[in-house]
C-alpha cells in the first residue's frame, strides 16, 4: 500500500521512561493500568500489552531524574535501518549509535539518534515477536500501545523534521485563535497517528496512549483507574480528529497516560489533512461528555521540562 512510510518505518514499538519512584510506578503500570511485567534487569522493568506482539510497550528505568529515555519505532528490514541511518547522517542529524545488533529484549537490528528537539529515537527491525493473545470481551487491559504525543516549543519545526527526514505524514492539525497550530497528528502506517506533536512550553512527554479492545473495555478500564484514586485529567470523551475515545490520567510521576479505542485508520493516499478549531466544542469531544478543554487541563500535560534532552539514556 503506497501510503505506508517511504523509509520503511512500520509502527510505534515502545516508549521508555526513567522515573525516580520506580517501585510505585511498577505497581501502577501492572496493578492499575493493566500491563504485564515480562522481565526485569536491576532497576529496569519491561512491560508488555497482552494483545501485542511487541516484546514490551513501556520500559521503566529507576533513576534520579524523571525523563523520556527513548521512543522506539519498527522498520521493515535491516536494509531500511541502514538506509535511514545513512540518510539521517547525511542530513546532519546526530546519531547516538550506528546500526548494530540490539542488546535489548527480543534482539533485532537498529540504531538511535536525537530528533530535532533532542529526544532519543530508536529505529529497529527483526525484533523477535512475543507470544501474545486475544484480549477477551470485558477484559479492560491495553491491547497495544496506540500513540505517543510529545510537547515541543516549536511544533511546526518538529512536524517538518518528522515529515522531511523520517517520512511521517500529516493527518490533521488542531488550531487555536490565540495559540496558532496546537497539535499535529503524524502517521507512519494506516493508523491516524502513531506520533503527535503538541505545542508546549518545553520539550517533554505530553501523553502515551493505549488501545483498548472496545468501548466497553475502555469504559471499564477508565472506571478502574478512577476507583484506584489516580487523578483523571480529562474524559471520557471522543475526539473529532482521529475519531478515538479518550480518558487521560496522571501516572504517579506526573506523566499523562491515555486509554483510547477505535482510532481511525486512513486507507487512502487521497487523505487531505484538516485543521480543527479547538474553540469548537465538537473538535475536542464529539460526545460532549468530557469537561470542555481548559488551560488547567492543558497545563497538566505540559509535564516537567525533560531532563533527557540531547542526553542519551544509559541503557
UniProtKB/TrEMBL annotation:
Q: Which residues form the VOC domain?
A: 11-126, 144-262
State the protein's name: Oxidoreductase
Lineage per the UniProt record = Bacteria, Bacillati, Actinomycetota, Actinomycetes, Propionibacteriales
Question: What InterPro entries does its record include?
Answer: Glyas_Bleomycin-R_OHBP_Dase, Glyas_Fos-R_dOase_dom, GlyoxalaseI/FosfomycinResist, VOC_core
Provide the species name.
Answer: Nocardioides flavescens
- Which superkingdom heads the taxonomic lineage of this protein's source? Bacteria
